Amino acid sequence: MMKGLRILSLSDIHGDMDAYQIFLNRLEGQSFDVAIIAGDLGGLKEARTILSKLANFGKPILYVMGNWDSFSYLDNIHEAATHIHLTHQRIGDWVFLGYSGCSANLYCGNPSLAGKHEEFLSKARHYKRKYSSYELFCKSIVFKELQTYIHENQIDVDELIFVSHDRFYALPFTPVLYIFGHRHTPKYTYYKGIHCLNTSAISMESTMSNKDMDAPGNFCLIDLEGTACQINFQEIPSPYVRTDRFHGSCFQDVEENGYCDTAFFKKRKV
Length: 270
Description:
With 270 residues, the protein is α/β, with parallel strands linked by helices. 21% of the residues lie in helices and 29% in strands. It has helices at 17-27, 44-55, 116-122, 124-131, 134-152, and strands at 5-10, 34-38, 61-64, 81-83, 88-91, 94-99, 160-164, 177-180, 187-191, 194-198, 217-225, 228-236, 240-242, 252-254, 260-262, 265-267. The strands form 4 sheets. The chain has a 6-stranded mixed beta sheet with strand order 4-3-2-1-11-12. Strands 5-6-7-8-10-9 form a 6-stranded mixed beta sheet, with no helix packed on it. Strands 13-16 form a two-stranded antiparallel sheet. The longest helix is centred in the middle third of the chain and has 19 residues, at 134-152. The chain is globular, with a radius of gyration of 19 Å.
Protein backbone atom coordinates (compact mmCIF):
# COMPACT_ATOMS: atom_id res chain seq x y z
CA MET A 1 0.00 0.00 0.00
CA MET A 2 1.30 3.46 -0.91
CA LYS A 3 2.27 5.68 2.00
CA GLY A 4 0.51 8.99 2.48
CA LEU A 5 2.03 12.32 1.54
CA ARG A 6 1.26 15.88 2.63
CA ILE A 7 1.91 18.48 -0.07
CA LEU A 8 2.18 22.23 0.41
CA SER A 9 0.93 23.86 -2.80
CA LEU A 10 1.28 27.54 -3.69
CA SER A 11 1.46 29.67 -6.82
CA ASP A 12 1.44 33.18 -8.28
CA ILE A 13 3.54 35.13 -5.79
CA HIS A 14 4.26 37.77 -8.46
CA GLY A 15 7.36 38.98 -6.62
CA ASP A 16 5.15 40.41 -3.85
CA MET A 17 7.37 39.83 -0.82
CA ASP A 18 4.91 41.40 1.62
CA ALA A 19 2.21 38.91 0.64
CA TYR A 20 4.79 36.12 0.77
CA GLN A 21 5.77 37.07 4.33
CA ILE A 22 2.10 36.88 5.38
CA PHE A 23 2.01 33.39 3.83
CA LEU A 24 5.16 32.34 5.74
CA ASN A 25 3.65 33.59 8.99
CA ARG A 26 0.53 31.47 8.36
CA LEU A 27 2.70 28.48 7.50
CA GLU A 28 4.40 28.37 10.89
CA GLY A 29 3.32 25.25 12.79
CA GLN A 30 2.06 23.48 9.66
CA SER A 31 3.60 20.17 8.64
CA PHE A 32 4.24 19.00 5.07
CA ASP A 33 6.52 16.59 3.20
CA VAL A 34 7.17 18.53 -0.01
CA ALA A 35 6.45 22.04 -1.31
CA ILE A 36 5.15 22.66 -4.84
CA ILE A 37 5.25 26.11 -6.48
CA ALA A 38 3.15 26.24 -9.66
CA GLY A 39 4.90 29.24 -11.23
CA ASP A 40 4.92 33.05 -11.20
CA LEU A 41 7.53 33.59 -8.51
CA GLY A 42 8.73 36.87 -10.05
CA GLY A 43 12.21 38.10 -10.96
CA LEU A 44 15.45 36.28 -10.23
CA LYS A 45 16.15 38.20 -7.00
CA GLU A 46 12.63 37.60 -5.66
CA ALA A 47 12.69 33.94 -6.71
CA ARG A 48 15.92 33.28 -4.82
CA THR A 49 14.54 34.96 -1.70
CA ILE A 50 11.27 33.03 -1.97
CA LEU A 51 13.05 29.67 -2.27
CA SER A 52 15.61 30.50 0.41
CA LYS A 53 12.92 31.31 2.98
CA LEU A 54 10.85 28.25 2.10
CA ALA A 55 13.98 26.08 2.37
CA ASN A 56 14.16 26.97 6.07
CA PHE A 57 11.34 24.47 6.64
CA GLY A 58 13.76 21.69 5.65
CA LYS A 59 11.57 20.05 3.00
CA PRO A 60 12.21 19.47 -0.73
CA ILE A 61 10.89 22.20 -3.03
CA LEU A 62 9.75 21.52 -6.59
CA TYR A 63 8.67 24.31 -8.95
CA VAL A 64 7.66 25.18 -12.49
CA MET A 65 7.87 28.59 -14.14
CA GLY A 66 5.00 30.81 -15.24
CA ASN A 67 4.43 33.88 -17.39
CA TRP A 68 5.76 36.27 -14.69
CA ASP A 69 9.09 34.54 -14.23
CA SER A 70 11.95 36.50 -15.79
CA PHE A 71 14.81 34.13 -15.02
CA SER A 72 16.19 31.38 -17.24
CA TYR A 73 14.93 27.81 -17.41
CA LEU A 74 18.57 26.84 -16.81
CA ASP A 75 19.19 29.01 -13.72
CA ASN A 76 20.06 27.11 -10.54
CA ILE A 77 18.00 29.25 -8.18
CA HIS A 78 18.56 27.42 -4.89
CA GLU A 79 20.22 24.16 -3.87
CA ALA A 80 17.09 23.00 -2.00
CA ALA A 81 14.78 23.58 -5.00
CA THR A 82 14.36 21.65 -8.24
CA HIS A 83 12.89 23.01 -11.47
CA ILE A 84 10.83 20.05 -12.73
CA HIS A 85 10.21 21.22 -16.29
CA LEU A 86 10.17 18.00 -18.34
CA THR A 87 11.94 16.14 -15.58
CA HIS A 88 10.71 14.14 -12.64
CA GLN A 89 11.47 13.69 -8.96
CA ARG A 90 10.41 10.83 -6.71
CA ILE A 91 9.23 11.80 -3.23
CA GLY A 92 8.30 8.73 -1.22
CA ASP A 93 5.97 6.56 -3.30
CA TRP A 94 5.08 9.40 -5.66
CA VAL A 95 6.57 10.79 -8.87
CA PHE A 96 6.37 14.54 -9.60
CA LEU A 97 6.57 15.70 -13.22
CA GLY A 98 6.26 19.33 -14.34
CA TYR A 99 5.91 21.51 -17.40
CA SER A 100 6.89 25.19 -17.33
CA GLY A 101 5.63 28.12 -19.34
CA CYS A 102 2.32 29.67 -20.27
CA SER A 103 0.56 30.83 -23.41
CA ALA A 104 -0.05 34.19 -21.65
CA ASN A 105 3.53 35.19 -22.59
CA LEU A 106 3.87 32.90 -25.64
CA TYR A 107 5.92 30.41 -23.55
CA CYS A 108 8.77 32.92 -23.44
CA GLY A 109 12.04 31.21 -22.51
CA ASN A 110 10.70 27.69 -22.96
CA PRO A 111 13.43 25.91 -24.99
CA SER A 112 10.96 23.44 -26.49
CA LEU A 113 8.76 26.22 -27.91
CA ALA A 114 11.45 28.71 -28.94
CA GLY A 115 10.56 30.20 -32.32
CA LYS A 116 7.20 28.41 -32.46
CA HIS A 117 5.17 31.65 -32.46
CA GLU A 118 7.06 32.87 -35.53
CA GLU A 119 6.52 29.46 -37.15
CA PHE A 120 2.80 29.63 -36.38
CA LEU A 121 2.52 33.10 -37.93
CA SER A 122 4.52 32.09 -41.02
CA LYS A 123 2.08 29.22 -41.69
CA ALA A 124 -0.95 30.86 -40.14
CA ARG A 125 -3.50 29.70 -42.74
CA HIS A 126 -2.50 26.04 -42.40
CA TYR A 127 -2.05 26.04 -38.61
CA LYS A 128 -5.26 27.94 -37.90
CA ARG A 129 -7.16 25.41 -39.97
CA LYS A 130 -5.50 22.51 -38.13
CA TYR A 131 -5.27 23.89 -34.56
CA SER A 132 -7.49 27.03 -34.61
CA SER A 133 -5.16 28.96 -32.26
CA TYR A 134 -1.54 29.33 -31.23
CA GLU A 135 -2.42 28.05 -27.76
CA LEU A 136 -3.75 24.76 -29.16
CA PHE A 137 -0.76 24.53 -31.51
CA CYS A 138 1.54 24.70 -28.47
CA LYS A 139 -0.64 22.26 -26.57
CA SER A 140 -0.14 19.63 -29.28
CA ILE A 141 3.67 20.01 -28.95
CA VAL A 142 3.56 19.94 -25.14
CA PHE A 143 1.39 16.82 -25.01
CA LYS A 144 3.69 14.96 -27.41
CA GLU A 145 6.71 15.90 -25.28
CA LEU A 146 5.02 14.77 -22.07
CA GLN A 147 3.79 11.47 -23.51
CA THR A 148 7.26 10.73 -24.88
CA TYR A 149 8.89 11.58 -21.54
CA ILE A 150 6.49 9.41 -19.54
CA HIS A 151 6.99 6.49 -21.96
CA GLU A 152 10.79 6.75 -22.13
CA ASN A 153 11.14 7.01 -18.35
CA GLN A 154 8.59 4.26 -17.71
CA ILE A 155 6.59 6.41 -15.29
CA ASP A 156 3.56 4.71 -13.79
CA VAL A 157 0.68 7.22 -13.99
CA ASP A 158 -0.85 5.61 -10.88
CA GLU A 159 2.06 7.21 -8.98
CA LEU A 160 2.14 10.47 -10.94
CA ILE A 161 1.55 14.02 -9.71
CA PHE A 162 1.65 16.51 -12.58
CA VAL A 163 2.37 20.24 -12.14
CA SER A 164 2.03 23.11 -14.63
CA HIS A 165 1.44 26.86 -14.40
CA ASP A 166 -1.80 27.23 -16.36
CA ARG A 167 -4.20 24.32 -16.72
CA PHE A 168 -4.00 21.98 -19.70
CA TYR A 169 -7.41 20.57 -20.52
CA ALA A 170 -7.89 17.02 -21.81
CA LEU A 171 -4.53 15.63 -20.69
CA PRO A 172 -3.45 12.60 -22.75
CA PHE A 173 -2.49 10.75 -19.54
CA THR A 174 -4.18 10.37 -16.15
CA PRO A 175 -2.08 11.45 -13.15
CA VAL A 176 -3.54 10.88 -9.71
CA LEU A 177 -3.20 14.60 -8.93
CA TYR A 178 -2.86 17.64 -11.20
CA ILE A 179 -1.69 20.94 -9.60
CA PHE A 180 -1.74 24.30 -11.41
CA GLY A 181 -2.18 28.04 -10.74
CA HIS A 182 -2.43 31.15 -12.97
CA ARG A 183 -6.22 31.61 -12.66
CA HIS A 184 -6.07 33.13 -9.13
CA THR A 185 -9.13 31.20 -7.93
CA PRO A 186 -8.94 28.31 -5.45
CA LYS A 187 -10.83 25.39 -6.94
CA TYR A 188 -10.81 21.61 -6.64
CA THR A 189 -12.53 19.21 -9.02
CA TYR A 190 -12.38 15.46 -9.60
CA TYR A 191 -12.59 14.70 -13.32
CA LYS A 192 -12.13 11.38 -15.10
CA GLY A 193 -10.05 9.93 -12.29
CA ILE A 194 -7.84 13.03 -11.82
CA HIS A 195 -7.82 15.24 -8.74
CA CYS A 196 -7.50 18.73 -10.32
CA LEU A 197 -6.35 21.58 -8.07
CA ASN A 198 -6.18 25.27 -8.95
CA THR A 199 -4.00 26.30 -6.03
CA SER A 200 -4.84 30.01 -6.56
CA ALA A 201 -2.43 32.89 -5.84
CA ILE A 202 -0.42 34.17 -2.91
CA SER A 203 -0.76 37.72 -4.30
CA MET A 204 -3.28 39.36 -6.61
CA GLU A 205 -0.66 41.96 -7.59
CA SER A 206 -1.04 41.40 -11.32
CA THR A 207 -2.60 43.48 -14.07
CA MET A 208 -3.91 40.20 -15.50
CA SER A 209 -5.68 39.20 -12.28
CA ASN A 210 -9.45 38.88 -12.36
CA LYS A 211 -9.49 39.91 -8.69
CA ASP A 212 -8.68 43.19 -7.00
CA MET A 213 -5.37 43.55 -5.18
CA ASP A 214 -7.03 43.66 -1.76
CA ALA A 215 -8.59 40.21 -2.33
CA PRO A 216 -7.16 37.54 -0.02
CA GLY A 217 -4.65 35.04 -1.34
CA ASN A 218 -4.57 31.28 -0.86
CA PHE A 219 -2.28 28.35 -0.43
CA CYS A 220 -3.22 24.71 -0.07
CA LEU A 221 -2.35 21.63 1.98
CA ILE A 222 -3.03 18.33 0.24
CA ASP A 223 -3.18 14.97 1.98
CA LEU A 224 -2.69 12.21 -0.56
CA GLU A 225 -3.07 8.53 0.24
CA GLY A 226 -3.60 6.03 -2.54
CA THR A 227 -6.27 7.48 -4.81
CA ALA A 228 -7.81 9.48 -1.94
CA CYS A 229 -7.06 13.19 -1.86
CA GLN A 230 -8.06 15.67 0.85
CA ILE A 231 -7.77 19.37 -0.04
CA ASN A 232 -7.45 22.09 2.60
CA PHE A 233 -7.39 25.66 1.27
CA GLN A 234 -5.80 28.25 3.58
CA GLU A 235 -6.69 31.92 3.10
CA ILE A 236 -4.20 34.73 3.70
CA PRO A 237 -5.05 38.45 3.88
CA SER A 238 -3.74 40.79 1.20
CA PRO A 239 -1.03 43.35 2.06
CA TYR A 240 -3.10 45.91 0.11
CA VAL A 241 -5.96 48.04 1.40
CA ARG A 242 -8.49 49.90 -0.74
CA THR A 243 -8.24 53.67 -0.85
CA ASP A 244 -11.09 54.24 -3.29
CA ARG A 245 -14.64 52.88 -3.58
CA PHE A 246 -14.17 51.82 -7.22
CA HIS A 247 -13.07 48.36 -8.27
CA GLY A 248 -10.01 47.55 -10.34
CA SER A 249 -6.49 46.18 -10.10
CA CYS A 250 -4.86 49.52 -10.78
CA PHE A 251 -5.92 53.05 -11.59
CA GLN A 252 -4.11 56.33 -12.08
CA ASP A 253 -5.67 59.77 -12.06
CA VAL A 254 -3.86 61.83 -14.69
CA GLU A 255 -3.95 65.60 -14.12
CA GLU A 256 -3.56 68.21 -16.85
CA ASN A 257 0.14 68.63 -16.09
CA GLY A 258 0.66 64.90 -16.64
CA TYR A 259 1.09 64.06 -12.95
CA CYS A 260 -0.31 60.60 -12.07
CA ASP A 261 -1.74 59.74 -8.69
CA THR A 262 -2.60 56.13 -7.77
CA ALA A 263 -6.16 56.10 -6.50
CA PHE A 264 -7.21 52.54 -5.66
CA PHE A 265 -4.82 50.63 -3.39
CA LYS A 266 -1.91 51.09 -1.05
CA LYS A 267 0.29 48.66 0.89
CA ARG A 268 -0.40 48.26 4.59
CA LYS A 269 2.29 47.36 7.10
CA VAL A 270 2.85 43.59 7.28
